[in-house]
User: Fold these one by one.
Assistant:
Number 1:
Amino acid sequence: MADLTLQGKIIIPGTARGRALVGNEPLSFWGGYDWKTGEIIDRRHMLSGAIAKEKILAVPFTRGSSTTTAVLLEAIRAKTAPAGIITTDTDFFFALASVVAEELYTSPLPLVSLSVDDFAKLETDDEIQITNTGKVLITR
Amino acid sequence: MTLTLSSKDHEMLRGEFGPATKMAMSIVARMAEVSGAGELLHISGAHIDSTVYIGEAGLEFAERLASLGAKVCVPTTLNVSGLDEHHWQEWAVPSDWARQAHRQMIAYQSMGTIPTWTCAPYQTEMRPSFGQQIAWGESNAIVFANSVLGARTERYPDLFDICCAITGRVPAIGLHLTENRRGQLLFHLVDIPEQLQRSDDFHPVLGNLIGKAALDKVPVIEGMSVIPDEDQLKAFGAAAASSGGVALFHMIGITPEAPTLEEAFHGNVPTESINIGMEELRASRRELTHTDSSQLHMVVLGSPHFSLAEFRRLAPMLAGKRKHPDVEFLVTSSRAMTQLARKAGFLDPLEAFGAKITVDTCILTSPMLPAEIRNLMTNSAKFAYYTPGLLGRKIAFGSLKDCINSAVAGEIIRDETLWQT
């Protein structure tokens, strides 16, 4: 039984489950995500040093480089990507990586967005489940 | 909003223009749906950032399109690749990595593109014009095209840019549409000495600060009393597109969509304005340096790629000087700008100084640096921003003059005069 259920908007449908890794500042994957290990490597970012592989990564949106999509696609192929990503709005860069991953490897990455208020309720290490109806179930 | 496609869009989706166009259109249409577009728009130019070699997946994507016979249908320039195609052996690039990166270059070249291999396509003859709808990748190129030229592109990621170039279509979203180009956040410069505003290290520092504060909003900058040149606007935009997600900025009285404050905000009055004074600028400048030591192994200029005007400026500053033997001095640029600079005689003083020039690539996208090069210095905020994460190396930020003086001295030295007032 979840401690908290939030209704998200489905960006890319799918189900995912994992521990939350929550950063309330945007992240560029280029220079920010090591696709060989899944480590957050932007040394100025609050999540620097954390491993996002197989977690539910929650960041409001992407910043900076247009190479973010390519890095996330490599991570999906290398199986070092987050299990799912939660944002505060439709993030084109994440969504595209998921769409191309579906085209190339038939393995899309589930993406949902939450309102800014609901996003603020997420905490690192929450046990999170994303459902195929866009619900975010939180157990803590 | 429901997406309505034209009859030609449907023909592309059905495969009537071949399998590559079908794949590209299925990605364009899917992303148009995801982003809530009502329709697709025609474009008349594209710039492809997907050329940057990251790994196997990006290469598989490129070669899939190429093997399906993909051809672009609008004039399309190419961003940097992972290699200086003809000189990579002079650096530490592993040969198996080079082979993969080169395959990616060949795949994108096979699609009827123009092999410019530059992150500054606005320096080429393919520079877009005011109001032109385009699909550009590469964050610094996007912000320059939108802000300085008044062309219209959304902030497109790698892999999508090529799909737009193949289909000639983009989702009708974001900065393609007039209503989304209005300013959203006002920044007001307060008591910034003109002497500092003329200095080349002012613009990257300001860009870093505004990018961080504006994130994905459209910032408007008021109070610039010295009109920046094109390279200063390039440095500003590249910085703001690194520390934030800025894809369009307006500078009152300077950029084409902002002759007045009112026009920049499309008739709306901004509710608040953020003041920027010397204190904020000093903090932003400090942030760009990620080292405590004065040790220096290499100076890197040309992020984004050095322009002809920058070569012209640099040449006399190096005349009669020689870099310290323990320090490398690297300028990255495009083949086109380098050839023009050579014809103009600007490269002779560089070579006499001991500088090296690399084309086609960027040290952020190529594993070219030998391990012993650990401490870098640059005049680019973009480069300073990404170096710790991407290259795992120490970085110091300084003006062009600081960079030259440091290369001569063999250690990091910076003139603080302009920053102390």
Number 2:
Amino acid sequence: MRKQLPPEMLARDSRFVRTSIMDQVMDPRNQMIGQRDLGSARLQPERPAAGDRARNLMHGIFTGEIQALEGAGRTTYDFDDEQAPFALKLDMARQCWDESRHVEISVKLGDWMGTEIGEYSEATFLYEAACAPDPILRLCGVNRALEGLAIDVFNTMKEFGDLSGDPVLEFCEDWMLADEVTHVKMGSDWLRRLTENDPERRERALEFQRGVDKLFSLGGFRGETDENPIQLARKLRSMAGFSTDEIDEISEISVQAQAEAQAMAGGAVAS
Amino acid sequence: MVKFDAAELLAIAERAATEVGVPDAVEIDMDVDEALPLPLIASAVEASAGKIDAWFSGGCFESPKYQAILEPDVSKTELGAAFLRGRDRLDGGFEDAPPDGEISERQRAIWDVYTDGRLAQLGGFVMNEPRRRYTYRLRCGFNDVADAEYQRLWNTSSLTWAGLQETEDRLVAADPRPATKKSIRQVSLRQS
């Protein structure tokens, strides 16, 4: 079986349409919306088009869970025991079990919300964070950055379910949130253990994570202002092992990502 | 900003208007805000003196799989729904309903169920009933009373504005959620 599977070889049936995340981030309409007085961009039940925005996000969660499963799955196979200890692979296998369950839950939530599998396009930027040849980079890309984003997204959806009185959505998101906190902790623990005597490798891994966190901010999709649909979940990230400094850095990265996306989109509109 | 073919959209609109029974004598004026992408789906309809004015966000017609590309089947349903509500306003029992910008989210959700139910009965319109049910529940509540009213609204072929208000009263009485501040949906998405 092949090792280091590239994203273009991910198994998908005809329901799934692949798209580039940069097309979505750089959509010139984003900047036009930003110039209008549409109020808060937060995903809240009383906001305009809340139902369809939630459905769209739910489908994104669904495809994200598939990619997280694929990412963790690859890590159980792509490395020998010298590169990645058996105990690490066991943790990744346990994570695959969790992500499989999340995929099933996401499908059921899609049914609940009236969203079909493949209704929206899929961008593979999440899996691409798991394509690093160094298992430490994968842990940072998947378990800290991707799962960290999942904490932010699930917390937003949980609050959406709570505010809207949707008992199914709130319960399911809370259930999956608990797993994501564990996944982040696994990544943090293994990062510390495998780089205990190699601070340069640790710093390279954290630098990789910063790049992934910036990409996962999706040009302002995640942040701590009213312009960000998904809010940074500080309390839950803290529970997952992120330090205050790390969370502050992610917040700052999000601001930078939003500013850069707006500047690039503005140039695209002008041309 | 979008790759919609105006002639294709117009042809879909004409088919939708015919199939929901808009008389030929009624003039329809359409305004599409291309800057509002999926999933910002929103529409507003006003009607008077034999004319229907319909406003749509571009997201109403956009493919969820292919960015900025027209999705014909969903477009026909969105157009049909808007024109049906236009007919409601002209002579379908909603002549005394306030403008779309002044009705509440709950009232609009009730009207949308009534509208989609009629489109489903007519046939020829792609319908995502679970989506309609979910967006209705967001506005009207996740409880047995709301679900029962949903079924009644979906299956009825006759409703008036007064009847809609009575429905809303029953839904409010059964809704345990705290009252939210006034929705700014149409005011927010639609540029004056």
